[in-house]
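Reviewer 2 asked us to include a model.

Predict the structure of this chain.
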Amino acid sequence: MPSILITGCSSGIGHNAAHTLSRRGWQVFATCRNPEDCDRLRSEGLDSFVLDYTDKATIHDALARTLEVTGGTLDAVFNNGAFAIPGATEDLPTDALRSIFETNLFGWHELTRAVLPVMRAQGHGRIVQNSSVLGLAGLKWRGAYVATKFALEGLSDVLRLELADTGIHVILIEPGPVTSRIRQNSIPHFERWIDWENSPRAQQYRDTLRARLYDKSEPDFFELPPDAVTRRLIAALESRRPRPRYYVTTPTYILGGLRRVLPTRVLDYVLGKL
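Predicted model (C-alpha cells):
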C-alpha cells in the first residue's frame, strides 16, 4: 500500500485529496494545524494528527509518527496548507510578509528537507507542491500570496533539477480558482495586518476588495470543485513519468499561455483589468 503525508486537510483541496486517495488504497496521513480538525478527520476514518508549518517541532513529530506507522518509508508528500493576506502591496507590513512566508514556504521547505533522507534511502519518492496560477502571474491585491507562490515555483524547479538522478520527483500543481475556504480564512489576516482605512487606496478597498472578501456567496469565475485538483494529484502520484507541472482550471491555462507569448507591457495591461 503506497503511503502519503498530506498537509492542510481540514477543508477544501487537502480534505478532498485525503479522502479520495484513501478510497483508492493509499495509506493517508492527513494533517491539520488545529487539533480539533484532526479529531474531526479521525471521526471520518482518516489517520490524522497535527502539523503546523509555523512550528518546526510539529513538522518533525508528524513525520516521525508517519514513519513509525509505515516502518520507516514514505512514498509521497503533498505540501498543501497555505493562507492569503489580501491587500495592496504598499499596505503590507514587512512582518506580515514574514508571517505568510513562514507558513507558505519555509514550513514546506522544512518538511521537504526532513523527508528527503527517507526517500533517498528507499530510492524513490514524490514531492508534490500545491502552487497556484498566482505562481505564474501576479494579480492586484494579492502581493503577499503571489510572492510566496513565485518563490515556491523557483525553489521547486531547482530542487527538481538537483534530484533528477535520485528517483525522487518534484511536481508542481497550479490551480486557478477552486472552491475552498481560503477567502474566508484570509479575513483574520487581512484584519490583523492591513490598515486599509488609512490607506491612499481606502476607497478602492471599500468598492472592490472588501465587498468581495466579505461576500461568501459569490464564486470565482471558472471556479472548479476541489476534486479537479485531486485528479491532477492522482496523475502526479501514479503516473510512471509524472509531468513537472499540472495546470488546473481554465484561468491557469490562459494566464500560463499569455505569460509565454505576450510582452510584459501587454501582459500588464491584461492583468490590470482582472
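Residues 163 and 169 are 7 Å apart (CA to CA). The chain has a mean pLDDT of 96. We have added this to the supplementary material.
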